[in-house]
Amino acid sequence: MIKELWTWIKTAFESEYIIKRDTHIKHKDLKKNLERMFKQCYIEITDDRKYTIPLKDMEKFLNLNLYSLLKYRVERRDCEDYASVLNGLFRSINGQHAFGFVFVYSPRGKHALNCFIDDFEQFWYIEPQTNEIISSKYSDYTPYLIVI
Q1: What is the DSSP code (8-state) at residue 53?
Q2: Contact 112, 100 (CB under 8 A)
Q3: Radius of gyration of the chain from Cα atoms?
Q4: Any idea what DSSP says for residue 16?
Q5: Residues 35 and 137: beta-carbon distance below 8 Å
Q6: Helix or strand or coil: residue 100?
Q7: How does DSSP classify residue 71?
Q8: At 65, is the pLDDT very low, low, confident or very high (cuts 50, 70, 90)?
Q9: What is the CATH number of the domain that holds 25?
């Protein structure tokens, strides 16, 4: 088991999972864009600038999210836990990118997910329990808190 875990850790830090820092967006511009998209949402941007993430790179990165294979458990391993683990995994490998948490209202109630900004400054949701990437344009989510 330890050997497999060590192999996974070494794989995670290989260059194919490190997302390039090509395009950045400044704090004030990112916040203004998000406030325009989501009028009733508290938005916190933690750094002066963030690097955008190509969609194909995020799809590849999500292959590392093995936590998504674990079974959901109410109050023990639920949505905010999945989002926290994916956030920690992403930040440990790809620090200052436009990636974070989002808490939303959905038809099924409150929910926690991850989010990111792509190279076209589009906002995407990530369902960390399944690694599904969801366009904010076509979702039924209404965010009330975004932390990037």
Answers
A1: -
A2: no
A3: 15
A4: G
A5: no
A6: strand
A7: P
A8: confident
A9: 3.30.460.70
94 to 45, 53, 63, 97: CA distances (angstroms)? 16, 10, 14, 7
* Rama region for 109: left / alpha / beta (φ>0; ψ in -120 to 50; rest): left
User: Based on the structure, what is the number of domains in the chain?
Assistant: 1
Encoding tokens for residue 24? 């950045």
Boundaries of domain holding 10: 2-147
pLDDT, tens digit, for every residue of 9-53? 666 666 666 787 778 899 999 999 999 999 999 999 999 999 999
Whole-angstrom Cα distance, residue 125 to residue 132?
A: 8
Looking at every residue in the chain, the average pLDDT score rounds to 87
Task: Retrieve residue 81's tokens.
Answer: 């836990």
* Residues 136/122, Cβ–Cβ less than 8 Å: yes
- State the amino acid at position 94 in one-letter form: N
Tell me how far apart the alpha carbons of residues 39 and 126 are, in angstroms, rounded to a whole number.
Answer: 21
What's the angle, vertex CA 52, arms to CA 37 and CA 91, rounded to 5?
Answer: 105
Query: In the prediction, which pLDDT does 115 show?
Result: 98
pTM flag (> 0.90):
no
Alpha-carbon distance 61 to 106, whole Å?
26
